[in-house]
Queue: 4 jobs
Job 1
Amino acid sequence: MGRMEKPVVHHFVEKTKNLFNASWSKLLASFHQRRTSLSSLYLRFLTLQINPFWVHLHYFLAMSAVGFSALKITKTRTNVTVRPKSLDLFFTSVSATTVSSMSTVEMEAFSNTQLAILTILMFVGGEVFTSMLGLGLQLMRSKFKLTKNNITTTTTDCESQRLENSLNQIELGMVPSLQPAAPIQSQSQLVVEGKNNNTSLLEYSERIKSLDSDSGSGQHLHYNSIKCLSRVVACYLLVVNLVGSTLIFSYMKLLVPSAGQVLKEKGLRTLTFSVFTTVSTFTNCGFVPTNENMMVFRNNSGLLLLLIPQVLLGNTLYAPSLRLLVWFLEKITKREEYGYILKNHRRRRRRQVLPLGYGHLLSRSHSVYLAATVSGLLLLHLALFCSMEWTSSSEAMGGLNSSYQKLVASLFQVVNSRHAGESVVDLSLVAPANLVLIIVMMYLPPYTRFFLADDDDDDTVKTWKKSTKKGKKFVDYILFSQLSYLVIFVALICITEREKMKDDPLNFNIINIAFEVISAYGNVGFSTGYSCQRRLKFDDDDKLCKDAWYGFVGRWSNNGKLILILVMFFGRLKSLEKGGGKAWKLN
């Protein structure tokens, strides 16, 4: 009896141990599946349920608040007698974060530490960097889908094993043979029909494995392509800024020491100026550490030529440049991911192709049309600008001796009129016709084109009609167009500044106010400025008037500055809100 009890006890222990291990494995699998489901649900809520407009708005608000706190606790230059007000510091922080370069404080009032803070704000607020954060979310989303797909594949493998066991029973004659089945459309249908219908289990088993292999490889390729694109964008961002800073530093230190002498007289470090100007130019912000912006370097044509490509690579030509870079890498490396990136841009008519979801990834035709449009607008604007400002009687081009300097300065001014905002001329001296043309250029979005790309199938009217059938909110029907909001903002500022418009009509006129508002909306930073010589009334307060090197908004009331802060946020987020105004019919 004693000998027989030992195997029974051993069998009982082994059975208990196996039961415990099985229960523990099921518990871990259930926990892992629940954790994956919760993580997938959170990511889905973050990327799909929340409107990207509100995500970006909170991001820019947070960055602006952090920037304001940093500027507040740091000290300005020692030669500054009056410290900037808190509202002006917040205004500057918002202007740097939204890459608008609207100014209410002279730039030379900021210390090197504060200039470094503004550099960081411009860098993290630039379009390329924020789009890279969006790619990070896409990468997380693809990773969770890949994990979920692996779990589904494991479940399907179990079903396939069961089918193979049944197949073995058929071959042994234990189960009647089955008839061929109808075509299948999904894995779930495949498994169900394999269990319930009289079909060939061998065919089902092989086709299940085939579907799993295709689905898994497609998910892996999609995930790897997003990861590869993220690295390309990050390298593009870092290389352009690093090369640009190096070239400007070398120009100031080695090639043209007289330009570096200007910085030395102003108390600016060459390295600080090089990095600050490169980041500001690439992000199309428009801030320059000098009070006069780039007017102090208008005769340094070499420096202007170094900055012009950075303006284009960071905004209007970023999408074509990115596609050209990916195409070049695909030709050199022959990697499958680069080919996948080129074929799966943001808009596809074929629903079975999963797009990468990167707004700056355009098709080949769209990129070509965009580059042609940018070049055409630049040439047109350059011709009109030179025709009215080339003569020696023009005050705006005064101080430029040779035709070469005038041509380079005109090209620099025209390139910056789209979105960058750096200036080599006093815009208050520019011909009115050129001012109107600059207003139009500032209003145009970066990817404006005048050609119809074959992949652009987003008919806005049809899209709006389809969305109205899905029960959109009442607010969505009464939204105005973006141009209507600009009119409202201009009207509000005219109300807040009505006393100044009455007493100082030459400075506070509707053209200057509209120019300032549209410049803030386009995140450009151009300003006509303020001149004490244009004042009509001269009293005791007017005798204290002193011209300053900051924008026209610097002379506005606090309410006017707050309204322009809203305009800068609105302009920075305008690409995320394009559906307004379609319910309004003016015929």
Note: Confidence is low (pLDDT under 50) at residues 177-199, 211-215, 347-353, 456-471.
Job 2
Amino acid sequence: MEDMAFIKRKSKNSNSFPRPKQRKVAKRTAGPTSLYRAIHVLILEPEADTKPTTPLNPRIGTKSDSKSIQRSQFPPKIFLAPRSEMEDLAFGDHIRAPLLSEGGREGEVVVGIDGDADDDRWSESGGAVTTVVEEENPFEFLGAPSFSLPPPSPIDPFRNHSPRMGVYGWFKLVVCLPIALARLVLFGLALALGYLATKLALTGWKDRQMPMPRWRCRLMWVTRICARCILFSFGYHWINRIGRPASREVAPIVVSNHVSYVEPIFFFYELFPTIVASESHDSLPFVGTIIRAMQVIYVDRFSPSSRKNAVNEIKRKASSNSFPHLLLFPEGTTTNGRFLISFQHGAFIPSLPIQPVVVRYPFVHFDQSWGHISLAKLMFKMFTQFQNFMEVEYLPVIFPYEEETASHLSKRTSYVMGKALNVIQTSHAYGDLMLLTKASDFTKDECSNFLVEMAWVESSFSISTSEALELMDQFCLMNPDSNGLVKFRGFCTVFGLGDNLPSKKIFTYLDVERRGSIAFRQFLIGSAHVRKQPLFMRACETAFNTFCDSESSCSTLTIEQFRDKLQSMMPSTDKESLNQLVHLFDVDEDGKIDRDDFMSCLWKNPLLVALFPALIDTTILAVHA
């Protein structure tokens, strides 16, 4: 009775559940006491006839009236804990015993949050469950272990963060339209005058490998003043400078973060430096001529010879005081300014003193970063602002240590710049922006899901940006959904694999998260992981030799011969899928498949090597041994 009195006293302060009238043993409530008491009872006495038929909290669950809830809230058999235990449960700092034991007991059900997707992994292949594939490594004959991935980064360093236009935004747009027209006129006049002055300064100058003569540099001051007028037309009426640029003799190289097309214009006015730029900039109207006056060093990102020549030119011009400052944007592309992405090493290879510069664009209503936004839209928004803000901070010069590598000097510089900007550096690179652009060309909604941190991928798996773009083309043909995920059916359609066991093993190998779908990151890294294996090329050669039945006499297979071989290996594959797979190996489309076609196809599609383990298993194991 003492225990009952305790429960009765505690239930007076609880109003979350009506007290039942049908029983006089005890008046129970859904307050803290009875709730913990019910938990204690259910854990200690999990009998089949004592399970409640409705939730303990009447606000959760199905709709029912208060009487039915009262009758079914507590089971007829109730274990009353001693008063001391009830006090611990109701008012203790924590529950002293785990709610579920490690091994579990009969009558207990554990519900997972994510659920188990193994049973319906292949439901997309035909609208129903067909096969549950055991987790077997299809590339084990290569010595390739199963791979795991770190969690994808939620960072998108290229996203423009301008808020949506509200009432103030539309009001400002209407008011600033006449101002925008005046600014556009000023922009056109300044660009035309600067172009004429530059053409005059370049007239008759033939030996452009040497520094520009002084009188031509003085004439270029007209263009530099025009560049400041262009910045004024963009709304940069006043530019806040912190620190001072070091002299050419102290720091011949200047590096800066790259947020917009505004920084090159500012540095052209401020320093008139030599810059490193893409070859595509030379063909830009007006701008190309002005860039040539800066004795630009052109580079093709995808040409090893061009990159090598650019490094030699950087060394030559940075080591001579006759040339102006050498300006580089080591990120290689523009970002939103909230992060630093990976640095290219071109500016750090000469091992000369470097002055880092950081540029900020404070804003409230308009993000001035040139990320994933068109140039025309960005310029229009700049013209229709009352004023834009820009801050340039010159940081202390960084002097290289003796025998310091370019990589270490790059890390030191990025740390100093990141600390000044109060941002972190990610492993994204220019290749991520190209992947983002290609994804948008395929009208994918969540384009940021296609970012893979390309600098990390290149260093870890030795795959280039151009190769990643080719795999991106294949992945987009798999018809990803709005979240950038591909199901098994879409995966098979691109390669012509069909709904068979080898293709399911390959898909399961890529599906490291076991959710029945793969993202581009898994497809890219899985392909690169397989191709990186030391036995990969030997496996491809052995497979082709086995196809020909002779290592020396046979060098070409007809389409029909190759199809017959594949048919015998994959008898369950339909004819249409088989033809698609055969034509995938006919790289040069000459109706024949030779060694070069076979090797080239597997190099571009390394996952397909899993189709030939029966042909190369014995040989590869012998070589591996």
Note: Residues 197 and 219 are 7 Å apart (CA to CA).
Job 3
Amino acid sequence: MILQLEGIGKRLTSIFVGFASRLLGDHWKPAEVNRHFRRDCRQPDSARSCDVTQRPESDRLLSGAGQSDGLVHINGLKGYKMLQGKEAVLRMAGKRSASSSASNKPKRPRKGISLDVKLNILRSFDAGEKLSAIAKTFGLATSTVATIRGNRDKIEASAQVATPLSARTLYFHRSEVMLNMERLLSSWIKDQMQHNVPLSTMVIQAKAKSLHNDLVKGGGSGAQEKPFLASKGWFDRFRKRFNLHNGHSDDVEAVINYPCELKKIIDEGGYMAEQVFNVDETCLFWKRLPERTFISKEEKTALGFKASKDRLTLLMGGNAAGDFKLKPVLVYSFENPIALKGYAKPNLPVIWHSNRKACMTVTIFQDWFINYFCPDVEKYCAKHNICNKALLVIDNALSHPLNLNDLSNNVRVEYLSMDTALLQPMDQGVIENFKMYYLRKCFKQLVKANDGEGESTVREFWKKFNIMNAIDNITESWDEVKVSTMNGVWRNIWPECIKNFINCPPAEPAEKVTRDIVALANEAGFHDIVEGDVIQLLDSHKEDVSNEDLMLLAQAQASEEANVVETSPSPLQLMTNHLSDALSYIDQVVEILSANDPNRERSLKVGRLLHDAMSCYREMYKEKMRRKQQSSLDAILVLKAEPPSPRT
């Protein structure tokens, strides 16, 4: 009987050893195990109950020393328990991995997936692609891609609250208050950067706490939460989420030395004043009047978003010679305002762009550089018979791509640091003069609207003043900026390019323009306005955007987007009857002036100017009439060519 049992035990042992060796590899020593197993089987019961800790390492591994699970105890044949299947061996293998594999194989870091990638994955599903194909394309596991598909609603909600596309996967829930606070904080930072306002970490942290407190006071679904400390750790994560970089330079002598550095770059590249350009962004509150006007006072008491808070961003610039002003880029918060219905945006006197924050972005700037600036420079150089090359000097703002030098072989881009940006030509008087001309133009229109009829007429006109009127005023005000001004602002950064414009009209002094604005304001019915009010209004374009303004602007944009139905507006058409009426009116004007003006030379000069100005419309009218007559003639010929119908 004992021999039979020993034979069964040997066979079971060999099966067990072979199975375990395949799982445990080098850590399993079957010869040593068999030896100790046979020794235990031959020993008496008293010897078999010895302390397991005195046995060799392989024996202790089998016996499960220190374990209470009792899966393996080789204490003689009677007390022997066979391994309970694969699970027992795997649990034993866990003992091995805890001691050896954990030290050899480091834990794989958790991989974050940006919001942009998630949205692209969802678009691939919408296009009908298969799960496995999408996973292979993006280099992700199929389970990860499936999880992203399952979280579609959360991902799309994050995109709608303007979470940056570069944001990585969030490993914990972030409240709505935090999301809104960071979105508003990002808008504020971009606004400050566009005005070249240096920002430190402490300033940004203080603004974040202020915004968070105001949002919590305002209530909402995420208002009940733990205090927000705006810690350094939060700031580092926020900076990474929104891709913020610091362009500030601590070199105090940079401002003094930079003109020499720029002169060296210009000389090495062989650039002329006609080939050196500068552009800069500026914010314009296009419907803002001085605070002491009755319109501004009435607006303060009104509820909701104030029209005077509505703003746009302009990109303006030109060359150092002063004879080439670039077409302004206008960024507004709405893509299709009602005032632009029917107008073709490519034919506007500005380059139209839009986004929720009405601010310049990397995408907009890069599009302008490739599709507008480079082609315009090429045309300008060809017109003046000079080499097609240019040097573009810009500041190191967040909205300026750092790879512009890779996008053109003919244009070199020189980036100014935060310190040297103070020398930027457009900030030396060009933008300031433009805003003064814009305000004067608005008051001229208010005077024309008043026409002695009182406040009601002025109030009604300003209520109807829309973004299309602002675009017209921007265009005319930009045209008013003189060549001497465009050239003179380079004095601090490149004094060698300054010219004496003897034959060109000089720029109007700022004091004269300010007096003109005050006089027009008084004539329009704003009798309390003085020069100090005008200066304060012009300075208000540089003021910090308050928390209330940021939140009201976000609410107004959300409300506008919810009510707007995206339809393709029918374009305006200039019909033959419109042209006929307009040309007839012009002829009547010329006839009235010629018949009643005692100064014959003056009336003839005006008549010639009007005739030349309307020549393009006369040609258009003639062409339309020719086509109309041709269509009528073709219709007659078709009727004559048709055989007569037989009589019944």
Note: The chain has 26 helices and six strands.
Job 4
Amino acid sequence: MARKKPAKDKSEKNTDAEEPATGATPNGPIATRTFDDYECSGNVMTDFPGLCALLDIKDIPAIKTKSGSSNHESTPGGRQSHKKPVPDVFKPHIQVQLENGDPYSTSSLKIFGWTVDEPIIRVLCKMISSMAILHTIYFWQAKLTDEMVITLANAICVCNNLRVITLEGNPLTDHNHHLLFSEGSVLTHLNLRNNRIEDEGVRLLASGLSTSRSANRSLISLNLSFNYIGDVGAGYIAKGLRFNRTLLFLTLSNNHIGDLGATQLAMVFGEIVLTHEEIVQRRKLLLEKMHSITDPSGVMQQHKDAPSSGINGKSIWRETRTICKRTQKGTLKKLKCFCSTSAVDEHSSVAKMASDQLPSIASNPSLNLNKGENKITAKKRETSKPDGKRAPTKDQKCLKKAEGQDMEEKTHVFDQENKKPLDLVSPLLNESARQRDGELVLPGNTTLVSLSLAGNRITEVSLPQFLTSLQMQEGGKGLLRLCLQRNNFAPECESYVKLKELMTYRDPLNKKTEEETEEDAEGSQCSDS
């Protein structure tokens, strides 16, 4: 009997030893967690090593935090040590910029010169979604693959404050760089230096800038220097600049652009001749604009999805005449103004006829009579209902106001500083459109203020086109800075000298230096006197 007791105690010890293997603690929750179940706190110092441990990453990169002028290196255990970053600059680490030293306020993530694998990308993408004020992500020679860029692009879509992405020294096989600023992106600065981007990759990037149907409305700076862009790629970029009215700074230095590509870029700043596809899209937009002004009840809805090739002056005139019979005088005035100022390329004589006939149509009382009704019964009907419609109730007014606010939020972009809606009008509807030799011509791009083409293969053949296009830009709008150094023409070239004189007059930095020199000269004269 005495020998059986130790056996019983031994079994009890075995059951006690098996309990921790289940992952449960006597007085706490389950200790084991998976990568998907991990909830990031926003603190990189704890989230990064924790997520790496869940993915069984053995060599966890160090974290270097930077806040102000102080640099701190953190080990995966969370301990910090003050070290100079120079000796270990190429050692795998993540540089983290903190706002005011707060570990929960990461503003930028930077990775320099070490190979990032797929598990590290998964960890970074999971952490990005929890960083409320993150605005910069920087990868330099991290050897990212196309699949990693796709994963990163999906993650940054939920980052509302992310504004700057640098992907430098990361060539991709499938040219997926354009996914970083897809439609709906809020990025403002994109740096794609030294990624061996060729003409096919530029085509995808240019289509993200603008087409005849859509345009990027957030990106203001694009750096494509030190790539393999040729004349074909420059043509794609010129096409992407035709209807983009947001991009301010474009860098194409140190590529393979020659006179053909430079000429296509220069023509964008002058006047744009619309293609057949662009004219078709313009007609659709004009019809939609007319529909929104004259037909709120949906009479012309049948033409919204109709082929534009079947839209002619007669059909527009028939619909205009029908609509005029059902609208009030205020709407007729709007239609008259629209017909007299728009549709330059589409039967201007028919539009003029419509505007001339509108007052007579509005003044005809027979248009307001129903079938089988004479003037006397119509007069009785009008006197019995002086207001014409029953006054809306308070609930109906509130509902209509709420619907109007929702529609305004959908159709406008709001200025964050002044809280005012900004109308997004397509450049195809520019009122300065005119006909020339049977072609429809629009003003060129006057939004881009800085273009760098230094270090390419441009000769003096394409310089006159730049001079001609820039002279067409009037009113202080258009290109303010043009860099053409280190190309295949002499600095004493006549066209280049004229371009330098023109850009010197336009460049605000040169004006500032001239004003400073004048002030210094005046100050020296005052001191001498």
Note: The mean pLDDT is 74.
